[in-house]
Specification:
alpha/beta
């Protein structure tokens, strides 16, 4: 089986969907599926004849578009490709997308062979706009892009509260800095470590955050390699992830901390699955998060229990399972 992934961004580009695609390609190779990636093209509608020739030259059994990515920008080439060639589409973001982006998604609904969403909530939202896609839509969750640190005892975790993700607005970073201010005010032994990559075009935003955090206990770790990142995540005792729209199955940063068995304090949203209540703590603001961290810190047995449940929950999102689900879907179409 030959699979061609079409992605606007792909490593070393800074893009979560690009990272996801890279991990999926690697997992498929382990299951003896030949997967290639088409990226770095002109995605404007005017370039569609050239794009079609390039796609056809791969002679792929399955064409699979990963959408959206930063590299596609606002161009409609991916939608036209999905109309002019039989494709599978994974739509990674619907409910939180701009209204114009949501309207552009109709192009994928016309002739796609299968539409994959990463959570049930996203699938339901899309079907409320486009009921006719219900017979060809399905859910396959995302996985964790960060390697596991083997043989790490959670007892070796330090008094660090971690945050990991792309550095750009609407990621809750102001709340993380507010928590650091509360830590300083209460003379807490905990400090915060923010690890991530600055999204192109948001360098001034990053600089403003660094300036805002200069007098609070925050360490910034930017553009580290995957091995270093895995160790930094695993050495945290807690993670504070105040997603503006709440945690969900499409939050790969939360999944990375789960995989490492880190105690997670986060926010609840409309798409937060109920089973996450078993392993995560929820705080509506930094003051509540501070209170939870204090309570768990003086109860090591309760914290250890939480860490075990968190790690167990991460087993839902292994790449071998995700690749297998894709392969079964492809075989149904061939």
């Amino acid at each position: 089986m030959r699979v061609l992934f079409v992605a606007g961004s792909y490593p070393p580009d800074v893009c979560g969907v690009g990272d996801y695609t890279s991990c999926l390609v690697a997992a498929m190779a382990q299951q003896e599926v030949q997967a290639e990636v088409l990226t770095g093209q002109d995605w404007r509608p005017s370039a569609i004849p050239k794009l079609l020739k390039i796609v056809d030259s791969y002679n792929a059994d399955i064409i699979h578009i990963q959408y959206p990515t930063f590299g596609f920008h606002r161009h409609l080439g991916p939608q036209l490709l999905a109309i002019l060639r039989p494709c599978v589409i994974t739509i990674h973001e619907v409910s939180q997308a701009h209204i114009l982006r949501q309207l552009s998604l109709y192009g994928f609904s016309l002739r796609a062979e299968k539409i994959i969403f990463t959570t049930e909530g996203e699938k339901r939202f899309a079907e409320s706009w486009s009921p006719w896609i219900s017979n060809k839509s399905t859910v396959i969750p995302i996985g964790v892009n960060i390697p596991l640190v083997e043989n790490l005892s959670r007892h070796s975790a330090r008094d660090i509260i971690g945050y990991f993700g792309l550095i750009r607005p609407a990621k809750g970073l102001e709340q993380v800095i507010e928590l650091a201010s509360i830590l300083r005010k209460n003379k807490s032994n905990f400090s915060i470590r923010i690890t991530g990559k600055v999204v192109h075009g948001h360098e001034s935003y990053y600089s403003s955050l660094v300036a805002l955090s200069k007098d609070v206990p925050i360490e910034w770790c930017i553009d580290v390699d995957d091995h270093t990142l895995a160790n930094l995540i695993a050495s945290c005792k807690f993670a504070y992830l105040p997603f503006p729209d709440g945690v969900s199955e499409r939050r790969s940063t939360a999944l990375a901390f789960m995989k490492a068995g880190v105690g997670i304090i986060t926010t609840r949203g409309l798409q937060t699955p109920s089973y996450m209540d078993q392993a995560l703590y929820f705080a509506s603001n930094p003051a509540e998060a501070f209170k939870i961290i204090n309570e768990l810190s003086i109860n090591p047995e309760k914290l250890h229990e939480l860490q075990l449940r968190t790690k167990e929950l991460s087993q839902r999102y292994t790449w071998d399972k995700i690749a297998h689900q894709h392969i079964m879907l492809y075989r149904e179409l061939l």
